[in-house]
Amino acid sequence: MTLNVNFTFDEKSYRHYMNGFLSVLHCHHYLCLTTKTAMDFKEINGLQILQETAEDTMRPVFEEYFKKNDVTTVKDKLLVGMRYYAVMGLGKMKATANEQGGEVVLARSHVDQGWLKRWGRNSQPVNFFTRGYIAAMFAAAVGKPARSFAVHEMEAIATGNDYSRFKVHTNN
User: Fold this and answer.
1) Which helix (H) or strand (E) covers residue 18, if one does?
2) In 3-state terms, what secondary structure has residue 161?
3) For residue 35, what are the contacts with CB-CB under 8 A and spacing of at least 6?
4) pLDDT tens across 38-85, in order?
5) pLDDT at 27
6) 55-58: long-range contacts (C-beta < 8 A, 24 or more apart)?
7) Could you tell me if 129 and 153 are in contact, meaning their C-beta atoms sit under 8 angstroms apart?
8) Closest listed residue to residue 138, CA positions, set 152, 156, 124, 159
9) Angle between the 46-68 and 128-142 helix axes, to the nearest 10 degrees?
10) Which tens digits make up the pLDDT trace of 84-139?
11) 22 falls in which pLDDT band (50, 70, 90)?
């Protein structure tokens, strides 16, 4: 499946858009610095805020794409999420899923690569943005509301693994 993406630029506001959604172009340190800041604010749930913000931001992008491009199957909806991840420069993702959850593997990760370049290996996974992204992708694919899926990073490139692996299950 090829993703239909229309990038536009507003000459007056200097804003970039992807399929009509305001988008931010970033360097390889942006998300790892955002993650580090969220980690530094653990006492006010910084990591949860980061993860939920990613989920709430990506969900409408997916749903609008499904509607405009007549994407109806769970498999194709997940493919849209995987393709968007690559188009946005976030990495290379492969997902297997059903209505109860599944697994996601990242062969490449923008967040992890930025983290490694900035601070080196970490003792634990750091890709909270992608956790939220995956939660949105799964919920949108099966038509469940936000916060329907819990995502746990089981292995991470930032910890020295060759890939990152996430387990996904429904929140009951």
Assistant:
1) strand 15-18
2) coil
3) 50, 111, 115, 126, 127, 128, 129
4) 999 999 999 999 999 999 999 999 999 999 999 999 999 999 999 989
5) 62
6) 55/132, 55/133, 55/135, 55/136, 55/139, 55/146, 55/147, 56/132, 56/136, 56/146, 57/132, 57/136, 58/84, 58/132, 58/133, 58/136, 58/137
7) no
8) 152
9) 40
10) 898 888 899 999 987 789 999 999 999 999 999 999 999 999 999 999 999 999 99
11) low
Q: Give the separation between CA 20 and CA 4, rounded to whole angstroms.
A: 12
Of 101, 97, 66, nearest in space to 84 by CA:
66
Q: Which amino acid is at 27?
A: C
Continuous segment of H or E residues that includes residue 10: strand 7-10
pLDDT at 3: 80
Distances in whole angstroms, Cα of residue 166 to Cα of each of 26, 27, 103, 128, 158 = 24, 24, 6, 11, 13
What is the torsion angle, in degrees rounded to the nearest 10, for the CA atoms of residue 133, residue 154, residue 151 and residue 56?
-30
Cα–Cα distance measured from residue 123 to residue 10, given in angstroms and rounded to the nearest whole number: 42
- The span from the CA of 103 to the CA of 171, in Å, is 15
Distances (CA, A) of 147 to 31, 42, 130, 172: 22, 20, 14, 10
The pLDDT value given to residue 28: 63
